[in-house]
Amino acid sequence: MRTLTYFVAVSIDGYACGPDNSYDFYEAPDPGGDLGDNGRFHVEEYPELLPTAARVPLGLDVPNKHFDTMLQGRGSYQVALDEGITSPYGHMREYVFSRSLPTDIDPNVTVVAGDPLETVRELKREDGPLGICVVGGPRIAGTLLPEIDELMIKRYPVVAGHGRPLFEGAAFDPARFARVESHTFEGGADYTLFRRITPETP
Fold this sequence. Notes:
- 21% of the residues lie in helices and 27% in strands.
- By secondary structure, the protein is an alpha/beta fold.
- An eight-stranded mixed sheet has the order 5-4-3-6-1-7-10-9. Strands 2-8 form a two-stranded antiparallel ribbon.
């Protein structure tokens, strides 16, 4: 059984993005081009989560370390479409959940108009050493919450005041997660990996 990980940024007060889906308030890029220590962490530990367009200027051509399949909702995928990019993670299999996108938008992208949970359960049953990742998209994360095994929470030292929660539209159904590891960076951000506690958890 493969693992589904939700990789998401969050403010101190628990918002994944602003009411208008903005997220640029988390951390401004260094005008000098320095990635910063959290950027270097991405490159070294999660290179596959850098979009293909960002990997090219970095000369990043390395195997995927954790995931071989990327899931996105329509809103998250639209960010790439607005830049004219139809396969933002071309180095992975891509699935986009949408009832309005054409199914032939890109050869590397599978558009799923049906039940996201059913699709994810099929993907998790596949054999393979690497996992599945869902990024951004509070709405699709809320739908997929019952199947999410891990959370990589990128918490930034920002209070948003209002915005969209991590799991938009999810039902009240408390689930316990164990802290696996945490990394704190110079700018005050911390990345923490949590794993769902199940009856089979040691």
